[in-house]
DNA sequence: GATTTTTCATTTGTCAGACATTTAATTGTC
DNA sequence: GACAATTAAATGTCTGACAAATGAAAAATC
């Protein structure tokens, strides 16, 4: 593709080779890679170069290393949490670095979130509805800082997407919700805007409870529109300063 | 200074420190990091350790390095393509390593994909509709291998999500579609199943053309159900073997 | 004989120093 | 002023060494 290999860059090449072995199933979860010395021999490079390659893979949570006899590099079992954390880091950076308008990011986030409404209304559990009501209670406390309000907001929406009872969907949606947090943290929430948001959160829970998909989607759409106006007022205030 | 954990792991610690500097905005896109020798001095470690830390960051596309005088490590501008490639790798591995049923993965994928239908019907362009029709033509060629058919399928769905005209949404959805490719590649597409899929693709394009959201969603729902039956027949065939 | 302790080999983590290669700025030459 | 050679700075790679961790085998002890 874009790898011209004018300068081979041995450690990157070796990392790519091992990554392919893992992604394409030639190395399975738990498998032990050859020792650094053996890998160096096999690829005809020094141990330092092999180590750089292994560190690249470790940064992607593809391998984990253990010290000592019978230690070494092992193909890592990628958990949902690790995967979500990685996805959130990448997405956060993407949003932060690309001069994306708050409106575009918000539109994407809520479009994605609406993809769970039908399944969530069908499968919501009492436990998750309880969790959502708990977060609503927390958000009603006026002494909450803006950061804490945002964090509770994230927890509320994560419970919402978990209602769909599909962990793959939860992974994708939770990652996109988390990635928005730095942008949301720019907003100063007044008592009035908090009340408005909490009302909409209540509408979402009530809608899920009644398995009323349409009302959940309406509440989410209203929430999206309201969040965008809040974001725009922040930008306007900044420009006018 | 020295944060002593159980096992310090210097290169990981240094990578974390620099990563925070980037994610939290103390280092901006394009900024040059100190040279490896300077970083080694600053952190009181050897150059090899610094290099391992930098390779970890490079693996996450957070930095890029340039050789020569006035070269060095620079904070990388994370592009949509890089971010999507990373997300797809992570998601693919997650799906491959967690004994996820084909049905659950498929359900998540199509739930996500439906999140673009309303925007796509509103904003679809002639160019993207043309691209989709082009892929449909390709898919109608019976001499196509299963892998090539899958690749064209991915291209078709990427054009579909691009219709929404929201690059953030495209990034998330394209990543999730790509992540499914290894699972889709397990399926052997008969002439009959290919015809069925192509028909549904045509229905999607026609629906977008007429800005008929409901018909696009119906076609996607049918495609989801059909894909799941195809996947299940593969699993059944395997079990019976 | 069973249990505890010691030794030992293996492997990763880190360091120091060296040389090769790349690259842009500088200098020298015409 | 244009072009070629030099130089300095930086990454890329190699070599060899030692430290630290760790499980297994061997030895010592009861």
Looking at this protein, list some descriptive labels:
homodimer, 241 residues, mainly alpha, Arc Repressor Mutant, subunit A, Four Helix Bundle (Hemerythrin (Met), subunit A), 2 domains, two-stranded antiparallel sheet, 12 helices, 2 strands, 70% helix, elongated, disordered N terminus, DNA-binding
Form type of chain A: elongated
**SSE succession of chain A:** HHHEEHHHHHHHHH
SSE-based structural type of chain A? mainly alpha
Round the mean pLDDT of chain A to the nearest integer and report it: 91
Oligomer category? homodimer
Assess the beta-strand content of chain A as a share of residues.
under 5%
Number of helices of chain A: 12
Distance between the termini of chain A: 46 Å
For the sheet with most strands of chain A, the description reads:
2 strands, antiparallel
Tell me the total number of β-strands of chain A: 2
| CATH class descriptor of the largest domain in chain A | Mainly Alpha
CATH superfamily of the largest domain in chain A: GntR ligand-binding domain-like
Largest interface: A-B, 60 and 59 residues
Q: What fold name stands as the CATH topology of the largest domain in chain A? A: Four Helix Bundle (Hemerythrin (Met), subunit A)
User: Any idea what the CATH architecture of the largest domain in chain A is?
Assistant: Up-down Bundle
Q: How are the strands ordered across the major sheet of chain A?
A: 1-2
The helix content of chain A, as a percent range, equals 55-70%
Gyration radius over CA of chain A: 23 Å
The total number of structural domains of chain A is 2
Low-confidence stretches of chain A: 1-5
């Amino acid at each position: 593709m874009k790898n011209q290999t004018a300068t081979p860059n041995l450690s990157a090449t070796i990392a790519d080779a091992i990554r392919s072995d893992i992604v394409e199933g030639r190395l399975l979860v738990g498998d032990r890679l050859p020792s650094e010395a053996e890998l160096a021999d096999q690829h005809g490079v020094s141990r330092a170069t092999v180590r750089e390659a292994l560190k690249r893979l470790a940064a992607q949570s593809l391998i984990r290393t253990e010290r000592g006899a019978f230690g070494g590099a092992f193909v890592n079992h990628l958990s949902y949490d690790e995967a979500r954390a990685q996805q959130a880091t990448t997405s956060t950076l993407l949003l932060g670095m690309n001069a994306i308008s708050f409106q575009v990011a918000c539109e994407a986030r809520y479009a994605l979130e609406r993809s769970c409404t039908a399944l969530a209304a069908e499968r919501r559990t009492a436990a998750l509805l309880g969790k959502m009501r708990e977060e609503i209670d927390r958000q009603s406390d006026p002494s909450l800082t803006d950061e804490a309000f945002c964090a509770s907001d994230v927890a509320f929406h994560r419970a919402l997407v978990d209602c769909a009872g599909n962990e793959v969907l939860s992974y994708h949606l939770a990652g996109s919700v988390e990635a928005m947090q730095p942008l949301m943290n720019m907003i100063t929430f007044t008592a009035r805007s908090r009340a408005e948001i909490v009302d909409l959160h209540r509408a979402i829970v009530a809608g899920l409870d009644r398995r009323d998909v349409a009302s959940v989607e309406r509440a989410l759409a209203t929430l999206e529109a309201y969040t965008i106006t809040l974001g725009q007022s922040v930008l306007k205030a900044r420009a006018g300063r």
